[in-house]
Every structure is written in C-alpha cells, then in structure tokens.
Amino acid sequence: MGHLNLPASKRSPRQWRLLDLVSAAFFGIVIVFFLLVFTPLGDSLAASGRQALLLSTNADPRQRHRLVALVELGQHQQPIEACPVDAVDHMPCEDPRRNSQLSREMNFYRERHCPLPEETPLCLIPPPNGYKIPVQWPDSLHKIWHSNMPHNKIADRKGHQGWMKLEGPHFIFPGGGTMFPDGAIQYIEKLGQYIPISDGVLRTALDMGCGVASFGGYLLSKDILAMSFAPRDSHKSQIQFALERGIPAFVAMLGTRRLPFPAFSFDLVHCSRCLIPFTAYNATYFLEVDRLLRPGGYLVISGPPVQWTNQDKEWADLQGVARALCYELIAVDGNTAVWKKPAGDSCLPNQNEFGLELCDESDDPSDAWYYNLKKCMSRTSSVKGEYAVGMISKWPERLTKAPARATLMRNGIDVFEADTRRWARRVAYYKNSLNLKLGTPAVRNVMDMNAFFGGFAAALKSDAVWVMNVVPARKPSTLSVIFDRGLIGVYHDWCEPFSTYPRSYDFIHVTGIESLIKHPGSTKNSCNLVDLMVEMDRMLRPEGTVLVRDSPEVIEKVARIAHAVRWTASIHEKEPESHGREKILVATKTFWTLPSASN
Fold first, then answer.
1. pLDDT bracket for residue 235 (50, 70, 90)
2. Tell me: the pLDDT tens digits for 8-27?
3. Looking at the DSSP assignment, which residues form a beta bridge with residue 404?
4. How does 444-453 read in b/e, with b if 16+ C-beta sit within 10 Å?
5. pLDDT tens across 308-326, in order?
6. What average pLDDT score do residues 557-583 get?
7. Mean pLDDT, to the nearest integer, of 178-196?
8. What is the CA radius of gyration of the chain?
9. Residue pair 475/226 in contact by the 8 Å Cβ criterion
10. Nearest C-alpha neighbor of 48 from the set 599, 596, 566, 534
11. Does 351 score more than 70 pLDDT?
12. What's 467-518 look like in SS3?
C-alpha cells in the first residue's frame, strides 16, 4: 500500500513550537503589565519587593551598619522602611516563632529571648489596617476600638466570664474575670473584708497572670497602683488589651528568672487563677513572691489549688509552704485565700518538708535583671531601713517623703529632695511653655526611660496618668526608692527591646538618652541611637509624644534620627531656672499607614 504525498510544510515542528512560546510569553507580559499598573496587586508586590530588599539589606551586618551610620549622620534621605503588615503586633524578645525552639522546662521558652541587633530588620512597625486613635481614659477602661487589635479569641473563649465581648466597633469590658465573673468591683469589696483596701496603707500591687487586667483597673479607684503582667501565651494579646484600656501592664513570665523588680516592692501580690505552680521546684515560685512582697504585705490567691476539686495535695502543700515562711492565713473564703507576710526576720525557716533555707548573706535580693531564681528565702535584714507595710508612710504622703532606701546612695535624702523639687519645676515648664499634651485626656500611658528616683512621675501626680518608671540595668539601682514612694517600674537594658506590644504609650520621656547606650564608666557605646529610637517608635502610639533632654550635640543627632523614623520634631531651650547645657527635643509620631491599608 503506497504512502500519500502531502505538501511539505514551510516551517518545521520545532519552529512552530518556538513561535508558540514567544507568543505566549508576549501575551503573558501584557497581562502582568496590566495587573501591576491597574490593580492593587501591583502595590502589594512592590511592597513585598521593598521588604525583601530590606530583609536582604539587614541580612548583611556590614550593610546594616552602614545604613545605621547614614541615618545617624542625617545622610539617609528617605524614612526608614516600614515592616511588613504581619509585624503589626511584633515583640522582638517575645517572638513565638523564634522562642518555640527553646526548652519547655520551667517555661523557659516563654521568657525574654532577644535577637541580636544585626538579626533584626531595621524597619518601623506599622499600625493595623483601620487603626484609630485610642479611646481616652476613663472611657477606655470599659471599651476600646476593635480595629486597633482585632483579636477575637479572648472574647470568644472568656466572654461568658465577663472578661470582654464584641459590640459593634468596640470591645466592651464588663469588668469580670474567671474567678470574679460578677465583676472586679464586687470581688475587691470582698477582699476589703480581710485587707486594708481603702485607707492608703496599701499602694503598690502585683497582679500575676492578669488576663485583661480588670482587677488592676478597678483597684485604681482605691488609689492602689497595680503592675499587671502575663506572658505572651495562647491568649496572645491579653496585655495588649490591658494597655489599650489604660491599665499599667507589661509582658513577663515567671519561669527560670527573677521578675525585673527589686526586693520587697509590693504591698499586695495577687493571683486570680494565674495557674502558677507555687510549690513546684522546692517552692521556688513562692519564694520569688516572698522576695517581691513587702514585709507585712498581703498575698491573695484565688482559684486552683485553693479548696479546688482534685487538688487536695496541692492545696495542702501551698498551706505548708506558707506556714514554713511564717505567713499568717487571714482567711479562706470559698476558693480565695488571704495571707499576711511577717513584718521582719522573726521567721527563720528551720527543718521543714520543703527544705527551705535562708539565702546567703552575700545574696542581693534586688539583683533581678536576667538573674536566675533562687531556691532560698530572701533576708529582709539585707535591706536597711523601715519599708514594711504599716511602717512606711501611707499614700499619698509616701510620694514625697524620702524613703529609708534612698540612703543607700551617698547623701541620698538630700539628692531625693532636690530631685523632687527639680522635676516639679521642669514639669510645670513642660506644661506651660512647650505646649505638650501632658495633663490632657490625650495622655494616659506614660514611660520614663531613665527614671532615677521617679521625680518626673511624682510631678504628674495630679494628672490622670500612670508612669512606667524604667531604671536602666546598667545604672545605680534606685528602683526600690520608686516603689517605696508608691510608684511602679521595672529594670531594663535599653540595648534590648522592651517587653511590651507596639503602640503601648502616649508619651515617652527620657533624660540623658545617650547614657542609655553607653558601657558603664566608659565613653564607648554598647548599641546605637538608631536602634533605640526605632524601639521607641515601636512602643509609641500614632500621634504620641516623645520628650528628650540632653546636650545640644546629642539633641542634634536625635533630631536627625527623628526625621528618619517619621517624627516631626522641634528643639527648645530648657527652663530658665536650670543650669547646664541641656536642650529639649519634643517630637510627635506621625500617623502613617502601609499603602496597602488604604486600598
């Protein structure tokens, strides 16, 4: 059978395939062009590209160092890039993606673990899409904008217990908690049957595992200032909600290290279903509470294991540890137990089933920055002076009376009194001459990054604010004086990020900003001002204020960096009565958003 003779093609099959590929590529390019130019996808891809470039820049420490140097010199013309949208709630030292690889023993992985600066992208945290200037105090105690932290998990899980619920554009906070579903007000009134809530005897409180901090929020009406803390855990944003409500709070975990407070700071320690295993590890966690609780102070534990089903042994152990440390059991009311700590070293733990012993006399119980927990009882005799509840002055007299622990510094009483007068004068100048928002409803959450004796915070006593007084870990330990005068604060090293969420503070104050990055007793820097001011920007709310006092040379450098972090800044002379060469920089954080957020 013969073959049919068809006309030969003018092109080979290989040539046809090549032509098809070229045509397909051409039409593909045209489609991509239209997508990039005429749709939001183009902006999104461009932003992703910029972020990829940013991350690659920071992947090279030398390149990052050059960028920091250019920003410090004012030679980086563009603002520092924005971080990606998924970083809106980023906390560098409490990053679950990073910390999940660490040991679970004693919740080590939930504690602070900070990346090195060269491992951190140099970028500015954006607000979430739809962010609004926060609801002002005191309305914020009861409601906040849902769009500022659109995390519904707690409302879904805890709404029936009165924690919070979603209503329209707001989260509403009825004031309840797991152990007080009828409200914190009623719960506090119940505690008032056993402890002196309302007469100024108690002022500083620590609320452990605080949830959304309703207990601390409602204690404020009793003139009790509570520091509320919780880890970044499965509830994710509980401390973020507390801060948005205007309640003092920060992120922390009672794990392997001491909490960042000096010894004998709190008049009241409270746990409402905080689930801290107080008697575990030879009662190490109870001993840490004992270190923090002022002699004569009160410990309140509500919830497990207090008279809790199937936790008889744990409840018996808790009572046994308290007895071994000579705590007086004041009351057991349902699932709430109240103890009073002895006022002195009258209790020396002898033979007991938990093996509790006094710490060595060489131990400083106020060492608490990255300091491992100790399985021993802190000696109250290691701290000189009168600081027990009932011996220290009542609130508000204790705010201005020089406490005994001020004498730990040479001429401490004179220095304290001069510092108090100085800050009263300075704050009056800030309010009258610098046109600041201090004293207005726009300012609720305040931070003093270099607090010394807390004079700045004390001068704000008539304002409806609370102040996080930070004593740098590299400087003399004056934080105990701050607590003795009825204020609150923490130790911190400003070469690391702070343990808080983005957009926590309305006003940040710092005197001697360059000293925060110096090696102690040296002119060399441990870190740089650019990273520090990027961290300040992370903590500051949009339209929030920063006030910096320092030498003219440092203020000029800060002004250059302020431009790079998108702040509007002005430089002012110091108050006429002050000596020295200081100048004052006042800056406002602009309210910017990611380009994609407006599409």
1. low
2. 444 454 444 544 554 555 55
3. none
4. bbbbbbbbbb
5. 999 999 999 999 999 999 9
6. 95
7. 93
8. 28
9. no
10. 596
11. no
12. EEEEEECCCCCCHHHHHHCCCCEEEECCCCCCCCCCCCEEEEEEECHHHHHE
Q: Return the closest-CA partner of residue 150 out of 126, 123, 174, 170.
A: 170
> In a 3-state reduction of DSSP, which class is residue 114?
coil
Name residues whose C-beta falls within 8 Å of residue 348's C-beta, 6 or more positions apart in sequence.
358
**Which long-range CB contacts under 8 A does 18-27 form with residues at least 24 apart?**
none
Most confident of 66-80, 373-387, 489-503: 489-503
Please report how the helices 61-73 and 529-539 are oriented relative to each other, as an axis angle in degrees rounded to 10: 80
> What are residue 359's phi and psi, to 5 degrees?
-70, 155
Q: At a CB cut-off of 8 Å and minimum separation 6, what does 3 contact?
A: none
In the predicted model, what is the mean pLDDT of the chain?
89
Look at residue 522 in the predicted model and tell me its pLDDT: 81
Contact status, residue 259 vs residue 371, Cβ threshold 8 Å: no
Three-class HEC string of 272-294 = ECCCCCCCHHHHHHHHHHHHHEE
Distances (CA, A) of 371 to 209, 305, 349, 356, 495: 21, 28, 23, 20, 17
Of 215, 429, 560, the closest CA to residue 228 belongs to: 215
The length of the chain, given as a count of residues: 599
How much is the pLDDT for 53?
38
* pTM, two decimal places: 0.89
C-alpha to C-alpha distances, 292 to 96, 288, 546, nearest whole angstrom = 28, 6, 31
